[in-house]
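Dissemination and training. As part of the outreach component of the grant, students in the summer workshop were shown how a complex can be specified as a set of sequence lines and then modelled as a single object. The example used during the hands-on session is reproduced here so that future cohorts can follow it. Participants entered these lines:
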Amino acid sequence: MAKTLVVTLRKGGSGKTTTAINLATALLQKGKRVLLVDLDPQSNATISVGINPTTLPRHINTLFTDINAQPQDVIVKTEFGLDLIPAHPDLADTEAGMRATQIGLLKAILEPLDDTYDFIVIDTPPSESYLTANALAVADEVVIPLQAHFLAMRGLQEVIDEINQVKKGLNPKLKIAGILPTMVSQRTNISRMILDAVKEKYGDLLYPMSIDFSVRHAEASLAGVPIVIYEPAHQGSLAYYQLADNFLK
Amino acid sequence: MATKKKLQELLKDRETKREAVTPVSLYTKPYTLDDKTTGTQVVKYTTHLKKETIKAIKRYAVEAELKDYEIVQEAIDRYLKGKGL
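and obtained this result:
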C-alpha cells in the first residue's frame, strides 16, 4: 500500500517543487517504487524532471476532466527512471471549474495505483486551493519546506492551521512529517533567527537537516534533473537523502 | 423530519466518487447567443453526455433544421416541468 507524501506551503518560492522532486528521486534511488504527481498548473515539477508538459497528450488534467482516463495511461517515465503524472497549464481552468464537493477526486484517481507504488509524492500549488485540498485529502503525511524568511514563517502557521482543519474533517489520518528548512544561508543572522524561532515554536516538527541556498539547485532545474542526480555529493543532495531515510525507517 | 447524515457518511460521499470536472476559463467571457425559439439569451454550458445521445441530438437537429442546443433546451425544459420546477 503506497504512502502518500504531500509537499505544501502556501508561499511561493519556498522550495516545494525542489523538495518534491528530490525526495521522490532519493526514494527511487534507495530502491523504492515511487510516483511523483505534479498538481501545480505551473508544471514546474514536470519541467524540472525534464518533461515538457505542453507536448503531452495526457496529463493530470485529463484525469480530472475525463472519468474514463486511467492513471496508468497518463504516467510518463523520466530519463532517470522516475514515474510521473505530469501537470499541464490547463489545470488552472479545471480548478476554476471545481466544486467544494470535488476535493476528494484525487483520492479516487490515485486509488488504482495503491499497490503499484511504495510512495506517491505530490507537489502542490502555492495557494490554499481546491487542488491543494485534494492533495491533503489523499495524503498520509505532509512535508513543509520552509524558506528561512520571515514571510515564509508566517505562511507556516497558515498551513499548519489548514492541516488541522483537514484532520478534523476530510482526512483524520493526516499528519505532519516535518518542517524542512530550505534556502538557508548559514552565515546570515536572518536565517539563524528564523530557524531559532521555528525551533522554539514547533520544536519536534523541525527536521535536523536543512537545504542550504545554492545556485546548483537552479542549475539542476535548468538541466531538467533533480540535484540528487545532478550532483549527488552536494549538500542539498545529502540532506534530501537524509529526508528520504526518515520515511524508510 | 429528515435524518441528519453522520459526518463519516458525508466524508464517504465526498471521498470516493470519481466525476469529471468541467474546466472554466477565468479570462474568457461566457459565450452567449439568442435562442430564436423564445427570444431569450442562452449561455454556453458544457457537460457530458453518452456518445449515442450526442449522435442522436445531432441527427435530429439536421433532420428538423434546429440547433443542437434548441433540442437539449426543450428536453431539459420538459424534464424540469415534469419535476414541478
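The two ends of chain A are 16 Å apart (CA to CA). Students were then asked to discuss how this feature might be tested experimentally.
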